[in-house]
Design goal:
The protein contains one helix and seven strands. With 126 residues, the chain is mainly beta. It is elongated. It binds zinc ion (2 copies).
Length: 126
């Protein structure tokens, strides 16, 4: 996913499932298609297309929170996270109200938390 350059963050998206009456009537050649819409405008566009397609029998959608962006590639001391097991950092996950945080602990002791813990977060360091 190169659509989201920049720091890792939680984004609200919409996941829509489009169902056709028959695979032959679907542009994707399958009865169902699951698709993520990143913006309200994209969702409206997809909904409009689904409504105008007489072979579409249902198009339920729901809001989802997805983690987007590029993971950090090195710690603050400059150690790269790629490499052999001697330099590979430990990865952890903090459950949180925002959706969760990826925690990367470098062998040097540096700890990166991404996305950055914000005011609404209830994640706890363990
Ligand atoms: Zn380090
Ligand atoms: Zn959080």
């Amino acid at each position: 996913m190169f659509d989201y350059p920049g720091p890792v963050e939680w984004r609200t998206q919409w996941r829509i499932t489009i169902r056709w009456d028959h695979a032959d009537n679907s542009p994707v050649g399958a009865v169902t298609l699951e698709r993520d819409c990143r913006t309200p405008a994209e969702l409206r566009f997809i909904l409009g297309r689904a409504r105008s397609d007489e072979h579409v029998v249902a198009f339920p959608y729901r809001q989802v929170r997805v983690l987007v962006g590029d993971e950090p590639q090195q710690c603050r001391a400059g150690h790269t996270y790629r490499g052999g097991s001697a330099t590979r950092p430990a990865r952890d996950w903090w459950p949180c109200a925002c959706g969760g945080h990826l925690v990367i602990r470098c062998v040097c002791g540096d700890v990166m938390v991404t996305p950055v813990v914000g005011d609404d977060c209830n994640a706890r360091a363990r």
